């Protein structure tokens, strides 16, 4: 074994796909790319923890409006996702610049992203850890999936400018006898 610098730990435990966070400030929609998130609760009302901070233009909008949409892009949007992460909503209309379509959500003012496979309408459930850890706990209040979308492979940031694309799926449901609720089709 060789020592791994602590600054590289996240590269090996990143749990989920890169997301787009959509917010809306006085009717002006914005997007940001985000990789730092985690499922906190999956039964009943889903809770998702997200790391955002004052370095993100969307941070203040999310704190003020207390709502957003987490949109799950697929691999065909990877280049756009990286470009979205490399510019600021302060001076860029990201929906227009990257030819993405904002769609009215049902329960929040932030828009869905029509080109994404999944869109999760969210409200802040707990903001007590923002000042200490930049951790915001979001409650998913409505979820959408595009069943017609052919591309379903997600992208995962490796933490160094490279990405892993979902690939082969291993079906081990028959071995997950203790957690059968997770194996339902």
From TrEMBL:
SMART domains, per the entry: Flavin_Reduct (SM00903)
Co-factor requirement: FMN
Molecular function (Gene Ontology), one example: oxidoreductase activity, acting on the CH-NH group of donors, NAD or NADP as acceptor
Domain annotation Flavin reductase like: ranges: 12-163
UniProtKB keywords: Flavoprotein
PANTHER family per UniProt: FLAVOREDOXIN (PTHR43567:SF1), FLAVOREDOXIN-RELATED-RELATED (PTHR43567)
Homology family: Belongs to the flavoredoxin family.
Name of this chain's protein: Flavin reductase family protein
Organism, as annotated: Calorimonas adulescens
Lineage of origin: Bacteria, Bacillati, Bacillota, Clostridia, Thermoanaerobacterales
């Amino acid at each position: 074994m060789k020592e791994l610098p602590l600054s590289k730990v996240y590269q090996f435990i990143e749990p989920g796909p890169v997301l787009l966070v959509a917010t809306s400030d006085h009717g002006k929609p914005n997007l940001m790319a985000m990789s730092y998130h985690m499922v906190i609760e999956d039964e009943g009302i889903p809770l998702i923890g997200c790391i955002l901070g004052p370095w993100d233009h969307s941070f203040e909008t999310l704190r003020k409006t207390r709502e957003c949409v987490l949109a799950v892009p697929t691999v065909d949007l990877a280049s756009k996702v990286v470009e979205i992460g490399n510019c600021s909503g302060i001076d860029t209309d990201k929906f227009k610049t990257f030819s993405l379509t904002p769609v009215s959500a049902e329960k929040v003012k932030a828009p869905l992203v029509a080109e994404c496979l999944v869109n999760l309408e969210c409200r802040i459930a707990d903001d007590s850890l923002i000042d200490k850890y930049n951790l915001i706990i979001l409650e998913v209040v409505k979820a959408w999936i595009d069943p017609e979308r052919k591309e379903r492979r997600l992208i995962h940031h490796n933490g160094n400018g490279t990405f892993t694309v979902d690939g082969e799926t291993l079906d081990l449901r028959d071995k997950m006898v203790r957690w059968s609720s997770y194996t339902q089709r």
